């Protein structure tokens, strides 16, 4: 695939130093990954300025440098420089053009919010497939079209990777693609130049304040997906004030909006809900009509996810009865209240969930309490090099369990004990005896299982589908689901399981 600079940057304000007819055979934003013939984009990051790597990119074969200022190079022979006001926007614009604007050939659904994005993408995929539409998913768990799945390094990939993914999905004849859209991606313009058919909002709770600094800035980043830059049909959960504000804004612009939520004013809201240990039965009011069905997911928060997915299905033109029938066969979402099955469990239920925010932890605990006749025990920690302000709040939320084991999550470059100390600071002296600290995550899971009795449930929270731990710059193999299964069998394998 080869494209000229004039084609790549058509419609974008830019200045050319060199030849606008220079041909580009690839796009790069990491100088080490440049291949001969690539255009290299000098991205200004939080810690590193890509302009400093322009010469390295040329040494690797870049023929075009896209920058926000003239770059003075030791060897600029036959190198074309494209000067733009924002290299991130230019990269997204060029990526969309390089791959032939692939999002225009897809029914693309963008889902944003703090919690519920992954589950909702899987539910939308199920709805689309049941309607006979080949589908794809892009998000935290990975990138999938049909049976082809690859791991993801970001919830929402950088713009050249994202547009390349859209192109692969288009070429694989995908029709509907459900995509998680993170606040970082919106703020960093990774989705710029992408056309969405539907954009959806789940909720906003504390997370990523290390990056956004304030709730208001975090919300405004999410709200970009509902701005004039991303015209689309909308689905908005209005159960928090942020969703209500989005609904107000979209209604003021006469957007096509379906509101969802437990709030009876929502166009899709529950009339009745029956929570079971392995499934949930709902009767929904869907814009004045009653639709009842049972689906194999548990918890109140999944009712919210199901309603959001239902609204998205309607906006995709799928009849309500077909959507309900599809949701009855909803898949288990990897690492989202995923039950751990072991040959011997001693009558103890173990669930693994990605809950890594205070709200998500509270909702996961609440859901497990609804389906457990015994006590609820939680194992959890907090990630390093991330929003430290939520740690003490996570500690307080964990006390809603009957017993908590505070452990290490992904400490990254931080001291694991320092993170644990931050968590415990929110638990208070009065909570002594209702929690313990075990920095080793495997031993923490074993401790929780040893503390459990028949009829109890253990929630292992924070990492969900992840099969690794990030510790001091190392990537260690660690899967909560595998470890929990091993520890269950170690604890109960020598004696009969109890009902």
Automatic annotation (TrEMBL):
<keyword id="KW-0133">Cell shape</keyword>
<feature type="binding site">
    <location>
        <position position="31"/>
    </location>
    <ligand>
        <name>UDP-N-acetyl-alpha-D-muramoyl-L-alanyl-D-glutamate</name>
    </ligand>
</feature>
<feature type="domain" description="Mur ligase central">
    <location>
        <begin position="111"/>
        <end position="312"/>
    </location>
</feature>
<dbReference type="InterPro" id="IPR013221">
    <property type="entry name" value="Mur_ligase_cen"/>
</dbReference>
<feature type="binding site">
    <location>
        <position position="190"/>
    </location>
    <ligand>
        <name>UDP-N-acetyl-alpha-D-muramoyl-L-alanyl-D-glutamate</name>
    </ligand>
</feature>
<comment type="similarity">
    <text>Belongs to the MurCDEF family. MurE subfamily.</text>
</comment>
<dbReference type="Pfam" id="PF02875">
    <property type="entry name" value="Mur_ligase_C"/>
</dbReference>
<dbReference type="GO" id="GO:0008765">
    <property type="term" value="F:UDP-N-acetylmuramoylalanyl-D-glutamate-2,6-diaminopimelate ligase activity"/>
</dbReference>
<feature type="binding site">
    <location>
        <position position="386"/>
    </location>
    <ligand>
        <name>meso-2,6-diaminopimelate</name>
    </ligand>
</feature>
<comment type="pathway">
    <text>Cell wall biogenesis; peptidoglycan biosynthesis.</text>
</comment>
<feature type="binding site">
    <location>
        <position position="466"/>
    </location>
    <ligand>
        <name>meso-2,6-diaminopimelate</name>
    </ligand>
</feature>
<dbReference type="GO" id="GO:0009252">
    <property type="term" value="P:peptidoglycan biosynthetic process"/>
</dbReference>
<dbReference type="InterPro" id="IPR036615">
    <property type="entry name" value="Mur_ligase_C_dom_sf"/>
</dbReference>
<keyword id="KW-0963">Cytoplasm</keyword>
<dbReference type="GO" id="GO:0051301">
    <property type="term" value="P:cell division"/>
</dbReference>
<keyword id="KW-0131">Cell cycle</keyword>
<feature type="binding site">
    <location>
        <begin position="409"/>
        <end position="412"/>
    </location>
    <ligand>
        <name>meso-2,6-diaminopimelate</name>
    </ligand>
</feature>
<protein>
    <recommendedName>
        <fullName>UDP-N-acetylmuramoyl-L-alanyl-D-glutamate--2,6-diaminopimelate ligase</fullName>
        <ecNumber>6.3.2.13</ecNumber>
    </recommendedName>
</protein>
<dbReference type="GO" id="GO:0005524">
    <property type="term" value="F:ATP binding"/>
</dbReference>
<dbReference type="InterPro" id="IPR035911">
    <property type="entry name" value="MurE/MurF_N"/>
</dbReference>
<dbReference type="GO" id="GO:0071555">
    <property type="term" value="P:cell wall organization"/>
</dbReference>
<feature type="binding site">
    <location>
        <position position="182"/>
    </location>
    <ligand>
        <name>UDP-N-acetyl-alpha-D-muramoyl-L-alanyl-D-glutamate</name>
    </ligand>
</feature>
<feature type="domain" description="Mur ligase C-terminal">
    <location>
        <begin position="335"/>
        <end position="464"/>
    </location>
</feature>
<keyword id="KW-0436">Ligase</keyword>
<feature type="binding site">
    <location>
        <position position="462"/>
    </location>
    <ligand>
        <name>meso-2,6-diaminopimelate</name>
    </ligand>
</feature>
<feature type="binding site">
    <location>
        <begin position="113"/>
        <end position="119"/>
    </location>
    <ligand>
        <name>ATP</name>
    </ligand>
</feature>
<dbReference type="GO" id="GO:0008360">
    <property type="term" value="P:regulation of cell shape"/>
</dbReference>
<dbReference type="InterPro" id="IPR004101">
    <property type="entry name" value="Mur_ligase_C"/>
</dbReference>
<keyword id="KW-0132">Cell division</keyword>
<dbReference type="InterPro" id="IPR000713">
    <property type="entry name" value="Mur_ligase_N"/>
</dbReference>
<feature type="short sequence motif" description="Meso-diaminopimelate recognition motif">
    <location>
        <begin position="409"/>
        <end position="412"/>
    </location>
</feature>
<keyword id="KW-0067">ATP-binding</keyword>
<keyword id="KW-0961">Cell wall biogenesis/degradation</keyword>
<feature type="binding site">
    <location>
        <begin position="155"/>
        <end position="156"/>
    </location>
    <ligand>
        <name>UDP-N-acetyl-alpha-D-muramoyl-L-alanyl-D-glutamate</name>
    </ligand>
</feature>
<dbReference type="GO" id="GO:0000287">
    <property type="term" value="F:magnesium ion binding"/>
</dbReference>
<feature type="domain" description="Mur ligase N-terminal catalytic">
    <location>
        <begin position="24"/>
        <end position="99"/>
    </location>
</feature>
<feature type="modified residue" description="N6-carboxylysine">
    <location>
        <position position="222"/>
    </location>
</feature>
<dbReference type="Pfam" id="PF08245">
    <property type="entry name" value="Mur_ligase_M"/>
</dbReference>
<keyword id="KW-0547">Nucleotide-binding</keyword>
<dbReference type="InterPro" id="IPR005761">
    <property type="entry name" value="UDP-N-AcMur-Glu-dNH2Pim_ligase"/>
</dbReference>
<keyword id="KW-0573">Peptidoglycan synthesis</keyword>
<dbReference type="GO" id="GO:0005737">
    <property type="term" value="C:cytoplasm"/>
</dbReference>
């Amino acid at each position: 695939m080869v494209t000229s600079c004039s084609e790549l940057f058509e419609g974008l304000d830019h200045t050319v130093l060199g030849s606008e007819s220079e041909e580009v055979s690839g796009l790069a934003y990491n100088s080490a990954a440049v291949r001969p013939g690539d255009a290299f984009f000098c991205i200004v990051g939080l810690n590193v300025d890509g302009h400093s790597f322009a010469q390295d990119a040329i040494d690797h074969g870049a023929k075009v440098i896209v920058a926000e200022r003239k770059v003075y190079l030791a060897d600029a022979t036959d190198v074309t420089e494209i000067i733009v006001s924002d290299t991130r926007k230019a990269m997204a614009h060029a990526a969309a053009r390089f791959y032939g604007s692939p999002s225009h050939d897809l029914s693309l659904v963008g889902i944003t919010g703090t919690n519920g994005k992954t589950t909702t993408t899987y539910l939308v995929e199920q709805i689309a497939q049941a309607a006979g539409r080949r589908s794809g998913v892009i998000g935290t768990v990975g990138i999938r079209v049909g049976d082809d799945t690859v791991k993801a390094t970001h919830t929402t990939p950088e713009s050249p990777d994202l547009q390349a993914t859209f192109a692969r999905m288009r070429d694989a004849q995908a029709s509907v693609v459900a995509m998680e859209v993170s606040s970082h991606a919106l703020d960093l313009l990774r989705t710029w130049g992408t056309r969405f058919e539907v954009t959806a909002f789940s909720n906003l709770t504390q997370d990523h304040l290390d990056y956004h600094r304030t709730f208001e800035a975090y919300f405004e980043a999410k709200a970009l997906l509902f701005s004039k830059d991303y015209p689309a049909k909308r689905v908005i959960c209005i159960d928090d004030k942020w969703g209500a504000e989005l609904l107000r804004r979209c209604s003021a612009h006469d957007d096509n909006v379906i509101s969802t939520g437990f709030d009876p004013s929502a166009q899709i809201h529950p009339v009745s809900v029956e929570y079971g240990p392995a499934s949930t039965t709902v009767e929904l009011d869907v814009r004045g009509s009653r639709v009842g069905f049972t689906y194999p997911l548990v918890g109140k928060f999944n009712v919210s996810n199901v309603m959001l997915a239902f609204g998205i299905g309607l906006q995709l033109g799928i009849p309500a009865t077909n959507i309900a029938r599809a949701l009855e066969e909803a898949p288990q979402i990897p690492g989202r209240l995923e039950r751990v099955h072991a040959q011997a469990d001693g009558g103890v239920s173990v669930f693994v969930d990605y809950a890594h925010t205070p709200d998500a932890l509270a909702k996961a605990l609440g859901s497990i309490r609804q389906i457990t006749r015994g006590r609820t025990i939680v194992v959890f920690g907090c990630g390093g090099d991330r929003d430290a302000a939520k740690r003490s709040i996570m500690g307080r939320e964990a006390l809603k369990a009957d017993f908590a084991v505070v452990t290490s999550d992904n400490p990254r470059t931080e001291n694991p004990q320092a993170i644990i100390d931050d968590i415990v600071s929110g638990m208070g002296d009065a909570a002594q005896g209702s929690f313990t600290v075990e920095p080793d995550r495997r031993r923490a899971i074993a401790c929780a299982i040893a503390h459990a009795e028949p009829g109890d449930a253990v929630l292992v929270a924070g990492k969900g589908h992840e099969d690794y731990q990030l510790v001091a710059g190392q990537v260690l193999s660690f899967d909560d689901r595998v470890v929990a299964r091993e520890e269950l069998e170690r604890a109960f394998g020598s004696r009969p399981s109890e009902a």
